Amino acid sequence: MDGAPLLIALLAVPFVAAVASLLVPSPRGVLALLFATGLAVAGLAGLAAWTVADHGPIFAAGSWLFLDALSAYNLLVLVVVYLSSTAYAFRYFADEHEAESWTRRVARQFGGLWAGALGAMVAVLLSNNLGILWVGIEATTVLTAFLICLHVTSVSLEAMWKYLLICSVGVGLAFMGTLLVAKSAVPLALDPAKTLLWTTLRDHADQLDPATARAGFLFLLVGYGTKAGLAPMHSWLPDAHSQAPAPVSALFSGFMLNAALYCLMRYLPIVEGACGHSGWAQGLMVTFGLVSILVAAAFILFQQDVKRLLAYSSVEHLGIVTLGLGLGGLGTFAALFHTANHSLAKTLAFFSAGRLGQSHGTHEISVLRGTLRSHPVWGAGLLGGLLALIGVAPFAPFMSELLVARAAVQTGSTWTLVLFLAGLGAVFVGALRYALGMAWGRAEREPLPERHNALDVVLVVVPLVTLLILGLWMPAPLEAALNQAALVIGGTR
Amino acid sequence: MHPASIVLPASGLVLAPLLFGLINRTKAWFAGRRGQPLLQAYYDLYKLLHKGAVYSRTTTWIFRAGPIVGLSAGLVALALLPIAGMPSLAAFGGDVVLFAYLWALARFFTVLAALDTGSAFEGMGASREVQFSALAEPALFLALATLARISGQLSLSGIFTAVTPATWAAEGSSLALVAVALFVIVLAENARIPVDDPNTHLELTMIHEVMVLDHGGPDFALILYGSSLKLWVLGGLLVNVAVPVRTGNPWLDGLAFLSGMAVLAVAIGVVESTMARQKLLRVPHLLLAAGAMSALALVFLVR
Amino acid sequence: MSTSAELLAVAIVLTNLALLGSSRMGGLVRAMVVQGLAIGAFPVVAWAAGVSAWAVPFGLFAGAIKGLVFPWVLMRTLRRTGVSREVEPFVSCGMSLVIGLVAFGVAVWMGSRFSLDGMAYPTRLIVPVALFTAFVGLFLIVSRRKALTQAMGYLVFENGIYLFGVALVGELPFLVEFGILLDAYVALFVMGIATYQINREFHHIDTDRLSRLKG
User: Fold this and answer.
1) Given Cys at both, which of A51, A435, B139, C78 links A386, Cβ 3.0 to 4.6 Å?
2) How many cross-chain Cβ pairs, A to C, lie less than 8 Å apart?
3) What was the pLDDT predicted at A446?
4) Boundary residue ending a domain (A278, A307, A331)
5) What are the tens digits of pLDDT across the range A70-109?
């Protein structure tokens, strides 16, 4: 079955929904439309992924659109994150709807930007043209900026401005990297329409000019790394995540950071091929990954705001993914597995933090105590999410981190292993202290009682159970999918 | 030696004060007035030379030496300036450096003479003048270095013999930048707007005139004539860069040079009429910009 | 080496120096107008040197957007927020000029390390000029206090990158160029609105004072 129309539909549906949501009369209708969009995209994505698994990569629009195992895997993760975040948005904004701050204007703005961001992220995943890849990432920056300051306050504006400026400059640097990589293909005298296609560059990787490709990768790593939240370019992350509404933070950490890292995943085989598989690019990624883990660990030890804590945890986990990609082989497999685990756990944690914040009126850790008692469902969600994130067995993140450690042992880099484990250990100690306090400590003020319904329970139980199951047993289709995706980047189990 | 190479520099001796007349007439025309006669500077020189001089008891021989050194520097610089592609009267290898430092010598003695009077106004003018010249000097040197690099010569005469219209075709951008930088330097060194207003009568706003406030009579005539020579020589440098006419006939080239000087005087008049004087705090930026342009010209050349 | 391309390169460098040394917002916007138009003129000049004819409408379009539309949006935001017209630098204008000159020297050195074969554009100067423009943009973001000057710095940075792209690859596929320009436009628009909101909330656009979020 020809999958080309699937790709075009995947791209078109979110943008149509974005425009449509500007016209919907009721605020809740906007959310319903967004959820319906999510379902439609999920269906299309599932079909497309199945086609890829059976028949191999799909091409569309004159090879400008393209879906292979790696992008199909990421697409499925995106769909899961998007659906759960949109469902959560129903619950999150329900309170605001009663408080009259979820007006029609705010809802329409949210709807347009939310669907638009989904469309931009789908465009990033589907594009074969490296220029369109860049355009998609820049579009996500610009579209999500106003999601951060959905409710205009002085701190949210500050966070939005920092985010906009730092990420725009970073993405600009990534463009220079894109140009340099395109220039490294100039000696091949290719048809200019084909120079920016990923498939073309991958096929001719060993003929590219190594010096230019190296310079380009450096710019790309710094540029896309800014958008992915790698240290030391991560300074926008804690502010943006802590000030944005919880569904937006969940989407950011759950998928937008992954999208930027996905771009780096695409460039890695090209640059490695150009440099003769010397491991130079991978070494850089190991360095950035370790720096991110260690910096995040240092900051996690001294946090006062639960959402900032989760934001630094995102920096750490993206560092782990980068480290895995840099180690190669088993590490690539582990890194891809870790992206899914991180997305699941992080969205759960942000959902819980958001609802608890709404009930308590603040996100300060010192105030959010005894949540297991006062809010059993979301308190359990927060505890479970945090435990999963810091790598407690038998949750899935523990397994993927173990695989990364095994990859480090296999490549024989002792220092990498030592620093990696030290970072993980610091995060474990630091965050566990907060998690236990928030779950069982004694609250000073009694918060609003929790009103939960079936949707809340589903949103908490399903991710937790999934993480538990994945930690204990890797289903064969998932393993096959991960292997195929890892092959695209050049690693294998 | 062609007779033109003696006549043309000598014409500078005679025609230099005319530049002031041209500038003032241009400014008057912009203001809708009739203005001073073109030869007013000559009448002023005549008047001043026939006056007596009064010297304060706090001054020493330095006070009398200031104007004399200024005039001598101007005369030597005139002897070094090549006109119309012919070598100058006193050319030698490396006279670029002597050329730049003649002005420094004149400035040094003017400043000393100003400080010699012990007056606060002169001291203030001296400090301003020295600061701005310190910033203008790199610009001048970089411009001269660019010219030296283009022509491969270290003598002013050698440089300008080598700069022809063909040079403009080959290195036009560098020469254009050098010309603009030199124009700013001409304005700065000769105390013109936008650096200094020559018509101001408020001492606190003066830079150059306040240094010579206590000179009168013949001394002031020497200073006036010396400053006209300075304008002639520095302007001549600019005209040589901007209008390198080489018809083969030295007299025609000389005529082109003189017309170029006249156009320069009118241009200075236009600048003085259309721009306001810059705040004292902004003058370093202007000079830095001129230096930047010279540096750019050099960088463009060696890329 | 085509003279008109060289003159355009010189013009762009001079506008960069004007951006560094200007102490008023109006001066910054004027320099950006000249820079945008000069950048738009580059493909037209290159067409005369033999690059494909498609580059011309693109250059004109880019020049119009960078030289006319962006400055217009900036001036409009400036008027709406009603902030003072002083630039308020962290690094003084004179020192910025000196740093800019040093950066230009570094850019020339870096440009000389690029291999020149396959260059579609008629002057070797364009790579150092592009790198210099990008540096000036980053420097403006870092060394100027107001949010609007940071937005201007971002636009100058994008100018430099665009020039770099135009020099290195010659002609990107049009959709990509269009997408890039559109992104820059939307980014600027968003920044303009953001500045307006910041001003409304804080009554200033001094980003140095936007420092409540720490740790």
Assistant:
1) A435
2) 121
3) 74
4) A278
5) 999 999 999 999 999 999 998 888 877 777 777 888 888 8
Output the six-digit token pair for C31: 């320099």
> What pTM was computed for the model?
0.82
d(CA B5, CA B79): 10
**Packed helices C174-202 and C70-81: angle between N→C axes, nearest 10 degrees:** 10
Whether residue A138 lies inside any domain: the answer is no
Q: Classify burial at A394, counting beta carbons within 10 Å of its beta carbon; exposed 0-12, middle 13-18, buried 19 or more.
A: middle
CA distance A326 to chain C (A): 28
B138 at C interface, C-beta within 8 A? no
Which residues 43-62 of B are in CB contact (within 8 Å) with C?
none
Domain count, chain A: 3
Check if A119 contacts C (Cβ < 8 Å): no
Domain-embedded: residue A139:
no
Residue ranges per structural domain of chain C: 3-209
pLDDT digits (tens, 9 = 90+) for A437-487: 888 888 777 777 777 788 888 888 999 999 999 988 888 888 888 888 888
A274 and A263 in a single domain? The answer is yes
Which chains contact B through at least 3 pairs of Cβ atoms less than 8 Å apart?
C
Confidence band for C122, pLDDT divided at 50, 70 and 90:
low
Q: How far is B285 from chain C (nearest CA, A)?
A: 6
- Determine the residue of chain A that is closest to C200 in CA distance: A154
Contact flag A155-C165 (C-beta cutoff 8 Å): no
Same domain, A112 and A202: no
* Minimum CA–CA partner of C13 in chain B: B296
* A368 assigned to some structural domain: yes
What's the whole-number average pLDDT of chain C? 79
Chain C contact present for B285, CB below 8 A: yes
Indicate yes or no: CB of B299 within 8 angstroms of CB of C112. no
- Quick one: A329 and A468 in the same domain? yes
Q: What is the pLDDT, as a whole number, of residue A493?
A: 42
Q: Under a CB-based contact definition with an 8 Å cutoff, are residues A275 and A207 in contact?
A: no
> Beta-carbon neighbour count of residue B258 at 10 Å?
18
Question: C97 vs chain A: nearest CA distance in angstroms?
Answer: 22
Cβ under 8 Å to C: A residues 408-447: none
Residues of C in contact with A312 (CB under 8 A): none
Please give the residue range of the domain that contains residue A443: 280-493
Same domain, A120 and A162: no
C-alpha–C-alpha distance, residues B146 and A412, integer Å: 58
Q: Which residues contact C55 (CB under 8 A, 6 or more apart)?
A: C43, C44, C46, C47, C171
- Cβ contact (<8 Å) for C97 and B176? no
Please determine, for residue B48, whether its predicted confidence score (pLDDT) is greater than 60: yes
Residues of chain C neighbouring A196 (CB-CB closer than 8 A): 172-173, 176
Asked if residue A137 lies in contact with residue A224, where contact means CB atoms within 8 angstroms, the answer is: yes
- Please, are residues B149 and B298 in contact by the beta-carbon 8 Å criterion? yes
CB within 8 Å: C6 and B285: no
Name the β-bridge partners of B76. none
Set of chain B residues whose Cβ sits within 8 Å of the Cβ of C93: 285
A362/A451 same-domain check: yes
Check CB contact under 8 Å for C213 and A158: yes
Assembly ipTM? 0.85
CA distance A62 to A126: 13
**Choice between C36 and B299, residue whose per-residue pLDDT is larger:** C36
Q: What confidence tier does A287 reach under pLDDT thresholds 50, 70, 90?
A: very high
A110 vs A118: CA distance, rounded Å? 12
Tokens representing A205? Answer: 């990787």
Among A256, A278, A300, the domain-final residue is A278
Judged by a CB distance cut-off of 8 A, whether residue A214 touches chain C is no
Measured between beta carbons, the chain B residues lying within 8 angstroms of C128 are: 303
What pLDDT does residue A272 have?
Answer: 87
Do A258 and A325 lie in one domain? The reply is: no
